Amino acid sequence: MKSFNVTLKKVVDDSYDIDIGYGLEDRLINDLKNGLCCGYKRAAVISDSIVAPLYAEGICEKLSENGFSQKLFVFPEGEKSKTRRTKEQLEDDMLASGYRRDCFVIAVGGGVVTDISGFLAGTYGRGVPFVNYATTLLAAADASIGGKTAVDTPLATNLIGMFNQPKKVYIDLETWKTLPRRQLSSGLCETVKHAMMADKEFFEYLENNVEGVFEFDRTVCEHIAEKNCDIKYSVVMKDEREASLREILNLGHTVGRAIEVVSDYRLLHGEAVAIGLAAECILSESMGLMTGDEVKRSISLLNKCGLSTNIPDYIDRDILVEKLYTDKKVRDGKLRFIVQDGIGKVKQFGDSWAVGVKKSDIQKIIYDMK
Ligand code: GLY
């Protein structure tokens, strides 16, 4: 017998910049001209049916004017498009258009676009570079940063995907002006989540200033965008692959993700997570980790963001409880939750940030919620 050892030790530097500003298209083009994506000249611009005419077409024009070859690939907007089927369709279109390994991807849009594009870029030709141009508050707060990419399946969200870091992220606050109020509220949910888990002062800031987002108050929008990056990055830099600490970014998502699927995506991601955060606060209170007043404040901040924390009538609560078991934190068939230790802090349990919760305990909370 002969045995070989294939030594492949790697030192990888996946560091990248996030620019936050207004109208960042020219900056993107400039970065590309300066070699951001390996100096490649062929761009696949991926967007959805709403964002494409608003922002992606303009980026394509600028690419052409600056000597890049480009093509826009568009799919129907909405979470229901975040599937293997859409990824396959985009890949086939790119292949048919002659895209090979010397191309790069520009994702222009919200979380669905950045998630699917990042995943596609990670597997297309075994990996091509990509950048995220985030046009929603949700993408700015969460989806476009951190390198989680995925598609949904009929069973649950985000179960098929990969960690794949972009070359750069552009958070264009100008685009928030064209967001419907419902989308702004949905994006604010991840913002409130960040405050609840990591920053009491930011939580208080949101209590006092969050309306500013709906009025497009620049100071408020900038502060929120910066804080989201700060908080998310301090976690991702310590645990990129979610071995442990990154699980705290799942606050509110065990119930949130489940209810999003059970609602058949009638609830937007943030709307679903708002209900999940309320459930998690009540769970934290039942464990003696939050006071009734802290729970009330959390729910009223979510409400102030335009987010209801009530479970809609059309949700079957038994199905919802069963759906909790599709959560990625489940271990040995047991539910695990991230819980808070007051406002602005999550509770650590020994080496773990998630705690096992009995089905009957969370079932009771879900049955008792409005
Ligand atoms: N959205 C949670 C995370 O990025 O880990």
SS element count, helices: 14
Query: Which strand order do you get reading across the main beta sheet?
Result: 1-8-5-4-2-3
Instruction: Tell me which CATH architecture of the largest domain applies here.
Output: Up-down Bundle
**What is the CATH superfamily classification of the largest domain?**
Dehydroquinate synthase-like - alpha domain
In one word, what is the shape?
Answer: globular
Largest sheet: 6 strands, parallel
Query: Strand fraction band?
Result: 5-15%
Taken in chain order, the helices and strands follow as EHEHEHEHEHEEEHHHHHHHHEEH
Low-confidence stretches: none
Ends: how far apart?
66 Å
**Overall mean pLDDT:** 97
Helix content: 40-55%
Oligomer: single chain
CATH class of the largest domain: Mainly Alpha
Extended strand count: 10
Bound molecules: glycine
Radius of gyration: 21 Å
Characterization of this structure:
Helix content is 45%, strand content 13%. With 370 residues, the chain is an alpha/beta fold. The chain has two domains: 17-177, 3-Layer(aba) Sandwich (Rossmann fold), CATH 3.40.50; 180-368, Up-down Bundle (Dehydroquinate synthase-like, alpha domain), CATH 1.20.1090. A six-stranded parallel sheet has the order 1-8-5-4-2-3, with helices on both faces. A two-stranded antiparallel sheet has the order 6-7. A two-stranded antiparallel sheet has the order 9-10. Helix 6 packs across helix 9, helix 6 packs parallel to helix 11 and helix 10 crosses helix 11. The mean pLDDT is 97. The chain binds glycine. Glycine (GLY) binds next to loops. The site of glycine (GLY) has 5 residues, from loops.
